[in-house]
């Protein structure tokens, strides 16, 4: 899952980004509304965690732009105000969910994951395919009942492949969904991660390479 965090309190923004990355999400961070508009114009995000009171361009206007563009991106709006009227207003302009500050990080994670599931065809919360069971919420992977320990990027790649339900996923798509914008697209990081993931999942191999196209399970 790829997430954009838009928050002008830099310490909070960086802390949220760090926490989301620990949950195997690819996260970009910006600190004002103008930068947010630049990012959503060039990157596809599953979820935008959007502070409402932003400098340069207000969070409401960022949200309206996402809706105007018809993007499948889901918006979780943050605000220091807990007034019901503010929450209603935020939802009416196009936000998908609303979370007042201060918030429990565990709740933020749960809401981001719930919104991320809504950007694609609805799938069960626990993914199962080819003897593999993946639980995104618990960050657990099992193969034939045996738990497998994966690094965050390995988990992210496996989740993308599992969610594709047998369709081929290109290296570019994996790079888009599992890594942030700071990753050099010309590196072999996807190939190396897939190789390591195959080794950890064991035999017989379940990740198939489709020459010239990508990977599938």
Explain this structure to me?
- The two termini are 18 Å apart.
- Helix 2 runs parallel beside helix 3 and helix 6 (152-163) packs across helix 8.
- The protein is an alpha/beta fold.
- The protein folds into two domains: 2-117, Response regulator (Rossmann fold); 127-216, Arc Repressor Mutant, subunit A, CATH 1.10.10.10.
- The longest helix has 13 residues, at 10-22.
- It has eight helices and eleven strands.
- The model has no long low-confidence stretch (mean pLDDT 89).
- The radius of gyration is 18 Å and the shape is elongated.
- The protein has a five-stranded parallel sheet, sandwiched between helices. The chain has a four-stranded antiparallel sheet with strand order 6-7-8-9, with helices on one face.
Produce a short descriptive summary.
By secondary structure, the protein is an alpha/beta fold.
Distance between the termini: 18 Å
Structural class: alpha/beta
For the sheet with most strands, the description reads:
5 strands, parallel
Q: Tell me, rounded to a whole number, the average pLDDT.
A: 89
Q: Work out the radius of gyration.
A: 18 Å
- Beta-strand portion reads 15-25%
Shape: elongated
- What name does the CATH topology of the largest domain carry? Rossmann fold
Name the CATH architecture of the largest domain: 3-Layer(aba) Sandwich
- How many structural domains does the protein architecture include? 2
> How much helix, percentage-wise, in residues?
40-55%
Question: How many β-strands, per DSSP?
Answer: 11
- Determine and state the CATH class of the largest domain: Alpha Beta
Spell out the helices and strands N to C. EHEHEHEHEHEEEEHHHEE
List the strand order in the largest sheet: 2-1-3-4-5
Low-confidence stretches: none
Q: CATH superfamily name of the largest domain? A: Response regulator
């Amino acid at each position: 899952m790829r997430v954009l965090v838009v928050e002008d309190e830099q310490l909070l923004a960086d802390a949220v980004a760090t926490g989301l990355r620990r949950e195997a999400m690819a996260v970009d961070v910006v600190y004002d509304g103008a930068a947010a508009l630049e990012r959503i114009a060039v990157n596809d995000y599953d979820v935008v965690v959007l502070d409402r009171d932003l400098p340069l361009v207000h969070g409401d206007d960022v949200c309206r732009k996402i809706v105007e563009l018809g993007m499948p991106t889901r918006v979780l709006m943050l605000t220091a105000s807990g007034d019901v009227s503010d929450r209603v207003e935020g939802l009416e302009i196009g936000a998908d969910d609303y979370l007042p500050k201060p918030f429990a990080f565990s709740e933020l994670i749960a809401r981001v994951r719930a919104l991320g599931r809504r950007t694609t065809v609805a799938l069960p919360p626990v993914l199962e395919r080819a003897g593999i069971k993946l639980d995104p919420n618990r960050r657990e992977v099992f193969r034939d009942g045996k738990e497998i320990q994966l690094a965050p990027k390995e988990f992210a790649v496996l989740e993308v492949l599992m969610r594709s339900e047998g369709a081929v996923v290109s290296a570019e798509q994996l790079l888009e969904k599992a890594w942030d914008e700071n990753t050099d697209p010309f590196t072999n990081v996807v190939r190396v991660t897939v190789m390591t993931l195959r080794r950890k999942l064991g035999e017989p191999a379940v990740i198939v390479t489709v020459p010239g196209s990508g990977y599938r399970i």
